[in-house]
Amino acid sequence: MRARAAAVAAALAVGSLAVGVLSSGGGAAAATASQPAPSSDVEAGRQLYLVACTTCHGGDGAGVTDRGPSLIGVGAASVDFYLSTGRMPLDRPRTQAERKRVDYSATQIRQLVAYVASLAPGPAIPKIDPATGDLAEGLRLYANNCAPCHSSAAAGGALGHAVYAPPLNRATPLQVAEAVRIGPGAMPVFGPDTLDDHQLASIVRYVGYLHHPDDRGGLGLGHLGPIPEGFVAWVVGLGAMLVAVRWIGTKE
Amino acid sequence: MLGERRIGALLIVSTLAALGLAGVYIAGGQPQAEGALLGVALGGIGIALILWARSLTSEGTVVGDRGSLAHDEDAAAVEERIEHPPAEPGRRGVLKLFWAAGGALALSAVFPVRSLGPAPGKSLLRTAWRRGSRLVDVNGRLIRVETLQVGGTLTVFPENAVNAGDSATVLIRLGADQNKPRPGRQDWAPQGYIAYSKICPHVGCPVGLYQADTHELLCPCHQSTFDVLDGARPRFGPATRSLPQLPLAVDNQGYLIAQDDFDEPVGPGFWNRD
C-alpha cells in the first residue's frame, strides 16, 4: 500500500513537472499570463461577452467586417486597457474610441479579460511599479518617444484623419503601461524589446509627475503653450495698459 | 498738501518693495513673489510720476523774463554776425565729401560680408550615414532585428554620430507584405523595417508623429503627412517631396545597418539642390 502510494505520488510529480515544462516553453516570446484564470472567470466573462460584444466582435471573437476588429491574440492588457478606461463598449459610432464612463465593475472587467485572454496568447497585463522608475530617465524617454504626439506636458495633440493623441492627466499608471505595451488605435507599440520594464517604469513615473508638474513660471494655463499665454498677455496685459494710458490723459 | 503726501507714500511703498525684491532674490528666489514686488516697485514710481504731473505742476503759460545782454560790445558783435555771416564751403567741395563718405562706408562693409562664414560646399548633400553604419537609438543602444514589434517606431542615428542633427532617422517596423517599395528599393526594408529621414522637406521640423493604424508620418509644424507604405510620399500639407529613405540591411550578427547614405539631400530645398 505504501509503495503504491509512493508510486502514484511520484507519477503525479513527474506528470506535473512535465506539464509545467511544456506550458512554460510556449510563453517566452508572447509574454502570456503565467497562470491561466480560473475557469469560473472565463465562463462568466464569456457570458458577459455574448451579451454586449458579439455585434461588433463576433460570436467567436474573430471580428465582424466593417464593424469591429478581431480580439483573438490581443491579450489581457488590451482588454483591461479598453474596459478600464471606458473606451469599450462604444456608445455610438466614433472615429476614435475615447475615454468615457466605465460600464463594468472591476469583477466584470476581470472576467472579460480572462475570457478574451483565453482565446489566444497575447500581451499580459504589465506589472510596473512607478516608484522604481528614474524620473530624469523618464523625462528623456518621454521627450523622445511620447512628446511628439502627446505634447511635452501630456496635454495631448492633434493627429491626422480626425484622430488625436489624448491628454494623459486621467490615466492611471497601469493604464499608461498597458497603452505603451499594446499601442491602441493610432499609437505605435513599444514592446519589452523596444523599452524594457525599467524604462517603462520611468516613463510611467514621469507621466505621473506630469499630473501636477512644478509650474515654475506661474499659472499653467492648461499647459497648452504659447497660445493661451499670448491671449493673457494681449488681453489682460495690453488691456490694463490701455486703461492706464486713458487715465494718464484725463484731466483732473 | 494731500497730493504730496500721497505721492510720498507711494514712493515709500515702492522703495520697500524694491528692497524686498533684493531680499527675496538673496534668499533663493521665488518667481511669483519677485514678479509681484517688481511690479509694485516699478508701478509705484510710475504712478507717482503721473500723479505729480497731474496735480503738482501748474497749468497754462508762464512767462519768464529774459535778462538783457551784459555789455554793449556783445550786442554789437551779435549784430555784425547776423548781417555779415562768415564764408562757408562751396557746393563742389561738399559733393566731394559725399563721395568720400560713401566710398568709406562701402569699404567698411567688406568686413561684415567676409564674416558670413565659409561656403557650405557639399556638406548639405550628405549626412553622417555611411555604408555599414549600425543603427543606434538616442541612448546609443544598437538596434537588433527583435528590437521593434510590428507597429513600433524609434528615432535612430548612425552609431558614431548620435548627435548629428542631419542624420536623425525614423525607424518603423511594418508587417510582412505591407510595404510597397518603389522601383529599385526592393531590398531597402528587411523584415518589415523601414527608415526615413526625420527632417521634413518643407521647413525642416522633426517628423516625429507616427500614426500606426494609417501608416502615416505627420509633421507637427505644418501638418505635412507622408505615406510610409509608398516611400513617404506626401499625401497632405505643404511638403512637395517625399522623405528620403535610408536603405537598410541586417548584418550577420543580427544588427540593423545602413546600406549607404540617403540617395538625396535631406531636409528643405535649397537653390542648388538638384
Report the order of strands and helices of chain A: HHHHHHEEHHH
CATH fold title of one domain in chain B: Rieske Iron-sulfur Protein
Query: Which strand order spans the largest sheet of chain B, edge to edge or round the barrel?
Result: 1-2-3-4-9
Beta percentage of chain B is 5-15%
Distance between the amino and carboxyl termini of chain B: 79 Å
Distance between the termini of chain A: 117 Å
Query: How would you state the average pLDDT of chain B, rounded?
Result: 90
Q: Most extensive interface, residues per chain?
A: A-B, 26 and 33 residues
Q: Would you state the CATH class of one domain in chain A?
A: Mainly Alpha
CATH architecture title of one domain in chain A: Orthogonal Bundle
Main CATH class of one domain in chain B: Mainly Beta
> Structural class from helices and strands of chain B?
alpha+beta
CATH superfamily of one domain in chain B: Rieske [2Fe-2S] iron-sulphur domain
- Parts with pLDDT < 50 across at least 5 consecutive residues of chain B: none
Largest sheet of chain A: 2 strands, antiparallel
Helical/strand content category of chain A: mainly alpha
Task: Name the descriptors.
heterodimer, A: 252 residues, mainly alpha, Cytochrome Bc1 Complex, Chain D, domain 2, two-stranded antiparallel sheet, 9 helices, 52% helix, B: 274 residues, alpha+beta, Rieske Iron-sulfur Protein, five-stranded antiparallel beta sheet, four-stranded antiparallel beta sheet
What can you tell me about this protein's structure?
The complex is a heterodimer of chains A (252) and B (274). Chain A is elongated. Chain A has 252 residues and is mainly alpha-helical. In chain A, helix 4 packs antiparallel against helix 5, helix 4 packs across helix 7 (173-182) and helix 7 crosses helix 8. Among the domains of chain A are: 32-119, Cytochrome c-like domain (Cytochrome Bc1 Complex, Chain D, domain 2), CATH 1.10.760.10; 130-210, Cytochrome Bc1 Complex, Chain D, domain 2 (Orthogonal Bundle), CATH 1.10.760.10. Chain A has helices at residues 2-25, 39-52, 54-57, 75-84, 106-119, 135-150, 173-182, 197-210, 226-249, and strands at residues 157-158, 164-165. In chain B, strand 10 (248-250) and strand 11 (256-258) form a beta hairpin. Chain B is elongated. In chain B, helix 1 (2-26) packs antiparallel against helix 2 (31-56). A five-stranded antiparallel beta sheet of chain B has the order 1-2-3-4-9, with no helix packed on it. Chain B has a four-stranded antiparallel beta sheet with strand order 5-6-7-8, with no helix packed on it. Chain B has 274 residues and is α+β, with helices and mostly antiparallel strands. Classes of the chains: A mainly alpha (252), B alpha+beta (274). Chain A binds chain B through residues 140, 144-145, 148-149, 157, 159-161, 163, 183, 185-191, 193-194, 216-218, 247-248, 252, and chain B through 31-32, 35, 50, 54-55, 138, 144, 146-155, 172, 206, 208-214, 216, 218, 220, 223, 225, 236.
